[in-house]
Write a structure and sequence with these properties.
The complex is a heterodimer of chains A (about 80) and B (about 170). Chain A is α+β, with helices and mostly antiparallel strands. Chain A has helices at about 15-25, 45-55, and strands spanning about 5-10, 35-40, 55-65, 65-75. Chain A has a single domain (about 5-75), classed as 2-Layer Sandwich (Translation Initiation Factor IF3). In chain B, helix 1 runs parallel beside helix 5 (about 115-125). The radius of gyration of chain B is 18 Å and the shape is globular. Classes of the chains: A alpha+beta (about 80), B alpha/beta (about 170). The interface of A and B includes residues 18 and 19 of A.
Chain lengths: ~80, ~170
């Protein structure tokens, strides 16, 4: 999947991945896609909750070797 | 904007550990689009000091706090130092030692500092209210605190609390 911007939140803990993602989303346009990398297991549910409450679309959420990758499309 | 959700938090604790929940919840709510107001009263005022080195943690009398070392080999890190209260109370500078160890643990775990979370709240335009009565009671002066605060009383808190969807007392 192609992303317009990438955010490396690996090694960060709650609530920093969400706060950094919010900031990164502010820097892209509507309909553009943000790729987020995280190592926080709590971020899986948190990004779902973030998407639900902010209206941004969580297009995919995957895990490989303890690393999580999210693609989020800005509202 | 009237359908915007609103959160208020009353922050009453002035230790390093208890400074976290109000700022974590406030910054996250702001990121989710909430309008957030925080009212700092009594010991909570310590969270608004320019110099945050006043925030310390004490494991003394806190059975819920695991006492693990943030350095050394894994077997050493895994030890929970179950020191009896009567001994803890007799170790000089115990709070300073525990605070230094907790700050190291915080950094090791990629957890933000209080200063960082507070800045994120300010950037997100979280409204910060300080209890003027406590400022006087504890002998503080406004110059002890960061800029951008409003010094108010309980009635002003309720102006926001009364309109809020969620209100938390921490």
């Amino acid at each position: 999947m192609n992303a317009d911007k990438e955010l490396d939140a690996r090694g960060l803990n709650c609530p920093l991945p969400i706060l950094r993602a919010k900031k990164a989303l502010a820097e892209i346009g509507s309909g553009q896609v943000l790729k987020i990398l995280s190592t926080d297991p709590g971020s899986v549910k948190d990004f779902q909750a973030f998407a639900k409450q902010t209206g941004n679309e969580l297009m995919s959420s995957t895990e490989a070797g303890g690393e999580y990758t999210f693609f989020m499309k800005k509202k | 904007m009237d359908d915007q959700k609103k959160l208020t938090i009353i922050a009453t604790k002035g230790t390093l550990d208890w400074a976290y929940p109000p700022f974590i919840l406030a910054s996250t709510a702001a990121a989710l689009g909430y309008e957030v107001t925080m009212f700092f009263t009594f010991y909570g005022l310590q969270c608004l000091r320019k110099d945050l080195s006043c925030l310390k943690v004490s494991p003394l009398g806190n059975p819920g706090m695991p006492m693990k070392m943030p350095f050394g080999p894994q077997w050493f890190k895994d030890i929970n130092w179950n020191i009896p209260n009567i001994l803890q109370a007799n170790i000089p500078w115990y709070e300073d030692i525990a605070t230094a160890l907790m700050k190291k643990t915080i950094a090791n775990n990629g957890v933000a500092t209080i200063a960082e979370l507070r800045e994120l709240c300010q950037e997100a335009e979280v409204k910060l209210l300080a209890c003027q009565m406590t400022v006087e009671l504890f002998g503080f002066s406004h110059s002890d605190f960061i800029d951008g605060l409003e010094y108010v009383g309980a009635a002003t808190y309720f102006e926001y609390g009364g309109e809020a969807d969620i209100s938390l007392y921490i």
